[in-house]
Amino acid sequence: MYLYKKIFPKKNSLIIVIHAESRMQAFLNTDIAKTSGADGVFLINHKCGYEELTFIYENLRFCFQHESNWWIGMNYLDLNPAQAIKKIPFDASGLWVDNAGIDENKEDPFEEAKINWQTKLDRKDWRGIYFGGVAFKYQKEVLDLDTIASRARNYMDVITTSGKATGLPPGLKKIEIMRRAIKDFPLAVASGVNAGNIRKYLPLVDCFLVATGVSRTFFELDEEKVKEIVRIINSY
Q1: Which residues are within 8 A (CB) of 78 and not within 5 positions of it... i.e. 6 or more apart?
Q2: Across all residues in the chain, what is the average pLDDT?
Q3: Which residues, in sequence order, are CB contacts of 165 under 8 Å at separation 6+?
Q4: Residues 6+ apart with CB under 8 A from 139
Q5: Is the dihedral of CA 21, 99, 2, 186 positive or negative?
Q6: Residue 215 main-chain phi, psi, to 5 deg
Q7: Going by fewer Cβ within 10 Å, which terminus of the chain is more open, N or C?
């Protein structure tokens, strides 16, 4: 069984993305996500460095120590995947990287992705879930999406894709191609999903990484929006 599905056995899961600004801000938003029924959170550092994000994570883990299984993942925007794998705390639930290192223009498109995956395998004290960006926003368009997606399964725990920009959902055809290519392998979408469009993705996508669609500002979640998208997922 895939590692992701051991942790998230239900059909669809929701991980709320928190743009971390401070310890208190991250705590309050994580608490909203948790009490509203989300399956976990990803902390991401737009305004601080990886060391500060790690400090914020450690504070959160302490605050939620009475619920040690609460899922808290990381996205270090200022580190490459291999660096992030080496730096992530041993008890972090997961790591998401926007670019898993796949470039179909190279002789070996997966050269860097293989290195990143081996770095994870070599990190014996961390067994979190590795979400790798494939055909992700602000990167070169993937032309042979079928082949790239199919082979990417070998170098990550969850294939993670997006629309063309922050807040834009991926085209349904793109998701259908990826789903056919990877079969039952875990697939996550990390942009543009909200209560108004999530239903069309539910049959195809395992995990939704959502920020804009459940927020009232860049740094603050909207509790009612989180509850609504949780309700839709749970009713599918």
Answers
A1: 45, 49, 50
A2: 96
A3: 137, 138, 191
A4: 98, 99, 133
A5: positive
A6: -120, 155
A7: N
**Mean pLDDT calculated for residue range 170-178:** 97
d(C-alpha 76, C-alpha 92), whole Å: 12
**Residue 212 DSSP SS3:** helix
Residue 71 pLDDT greater than 80, yes or no? yes
184-187-190 Cα angle (round to 5): 170
- Amino acid occupying residue 193: V
Joined together, the tokens standing for residue 211 give 């920020």
Which has the closest alpha carbon to 205: 189, 192, 190?
189
pLDDT digits (tens, 9 = 90+) for 140-155: 899 999 999 999 999 9
The domain segmentation of the chain, as residue ranges, is 3-235
pLDDT mean over 209-220: 96
- State how far the Cα of 165 lies from the Cα of 235, in Å rounded to an integer: 29
pLDDT at 159 over 90: yes
Distance CA 40, CA 35 (A): 11
